[in-house]
């Protein structure tokens, strides 16, 4: 605190302390000032994007004050902090969220109107911060919202990608990827050019003996890259607490470029180093639930982990505490295995740089880390080749070998004569080439391992991590069922429903204690309430219908049943099952007489989601959905009875429009494959029902809302293995209704049949790994039940209201409190309203 202002001068600071706008006028003053000074524009050239910029800057000013105060408060209180390490933060837009969390959206709305703008149009100007792929990244964003809202001292650490997840365009029915350069204007980040860390790669290790005879390892040579911090304020809801998300950006360590080379005329190569360094944080890998083992990805991971740990350790060292107190001050959560190198890096810092004994250091490490597993899919479990490690991080490889040695020795002591076991749990897989198993390293290096829904947490204990349960005992393994923030996913996305709920729960407290939702169940028979409920759903559907028209050109009838599946495209999520079902519906309608058709219930099948650029089958699925759409949507026999649309570029801000507008949404993964799912929670919270398999959080949603309020179908996780075995490779008899669907595709009904051959062969000839045929009949029958249930509108609304009232459990606040108590051992930091944040001196 050398830069601290001395006591006598502090009065002047307090006198001039900037305060947030108190009313509409003050807000307008700030906006006009930002337009005229910060943006150097005027009322004669202020468009919506300038209004967005100025409005954001006005809110940012407010946010920054609370942010500074929060940081000072947390520093002075010296309490334990949690650090959430995630390679993905799928934040979406920030302005609307800031206005709502601060509680000044009404002020902004009125102020913007005075100045000539509609707040909705201003909000629309913002580019999504899309630094993530799907559920894992959005979960991290919901967690940040809850951590701040609950006043926990917490930081997020991630990478500041220059390009987030690509923008998806649909051209002639095919996905085309376009780079998403989102940093043109980003008022929500603060570059900290004074907060930098030098990160080392490659080089070699030599060992020496110090005066006391101890061996010391030195990692030398190689190349250095600079990490620069960019900070993003994270406002809590209805609290001044504003936490920090720190994102690292890579830069060449040695200035801008090589002057010597430049002066000698080698212009191109003079910038090569700079470009190589900047490549590290240039782009987010666009894979969801898939790892590809690319060197640059490992570089990203180490770059981010090393910078974050340096920062965390630097902060701890300022407290002058003894090292053994580190886990009392610091909890670090590993969001999947992506940051697992942090375990090794902390051990390296403690042993190589700080001179601690191995065992003492290791104790600290294990007590500091917790690891969350998000998937059991084998293709998503990270493994890195030993040779890549040797090349890129030679000292870390040695430490991994030592960690493994000591671990295996302890296993051997506990389970003598079990050679087999040693091979099974070794962090090093004795394959060709040898691989480092990151999940095993994360387990060994953490004091708690958790799954993200009950079924998933049970599955990891009985399948992929089974042997570790025998070794460490069952208490190390726990469950924390995922949650979502009701601020963004109800209050922000569905303001009218939020208002209506408020009238029945007695104020806005349900947004901080979601269990209060149960009060609306008392109004389930209240006529006016039900009427208003139905009106809101319809209005949300009208809004989505407009979006569909604008983005696809297709006109849909808002009173049709909206059937939605939006999520990353993946075979395990089974969009193919959905589109095969849609084709079945189409064929059935075609076979009816015009008279019979009139009795059918109109449906709109809405799809959205990105395919990883290299995922051929996922791209084929998108193409089939679009091809079916162009046939069905133009079939005069069908009219409004069936429409099929694919919404381009599904992202967080589009989810905010889509989620409140669904009647039924699809969560239909092969049982045992979807760890949790979180959009299932969002849809139910917004008064939509779901069709789902007994998978992930669907099971707990059923338990909470009751099985009459959910449409479950399909085989159970426990039967999946046997079913897979029973499929005869090469000649699998498919379900007869599905066979008819295949016939239609193969006869060219939806365009060139060879375009979709892969999807059919996967089921018919390649063993149907995802059980599409096994579940098809049950899927079709369940959709027929849904049609019937929807005809009974009164019964349907009762189901919706009842379900919403019972969704309290799925708040990310509940989830974060469970982590805080069961894994991190941290407490919220109470807010003293009179606190100036300047501390006591
Ligand atoms: C899972 O597939 C889960 C999220 C968040 C995903 C999804 O079911 O809801 O994590 N897993 O826990 C993942 O991305 C790499 O693994």
From TrEMBL:
Highest taxon of the lineage: Eukaryota
Known catalytic reactions: [(1->4)-alpha-D-glucosyl](n) + phosphate = [(1->4)-alpha-D-glucosyl](n-1) + alpha-D-glucose 1-phosphate
UniProt keywords, alphabetically: Allosteric enzyme, Carbohydrate metabolism, Glycosyltransferase, Pyridoxal phosphate, Transferase
Statement: the UniProt record of this protein carries the keyword Transferase: yes
GO molecular function: glycogen phosphorylase activity; pyridoxal phosphate binding
GO CC annotation: cytoplasm
Cofactor: pyridoxal 5'-phosphate
Record-listed N6-(pyridoxal phosphate)lysine modification sites: 682
Enzymatic class: transferase
EC number: 2.4.1.1
Purpose: Allosteric enzyme that catalyzes the rate-limiting step in glycogen catabolism, the phosphorolytic cleavage of glycogen to produce glucose-1-phosphate, and plays a central role in maintaining cellular and organismal glucose homeostasis.
Family: Belongs to the glycogen phosphorylase family.
Name listed for the protein in its UniProt record: Alpha-1,4 glucan phosphorylase
Organism field: Lasiosphaeria ovina
Lineage of the species this protein comes from: Eukaryota, Fungi, Dikarya, Ascomycota, Pezizomycotina
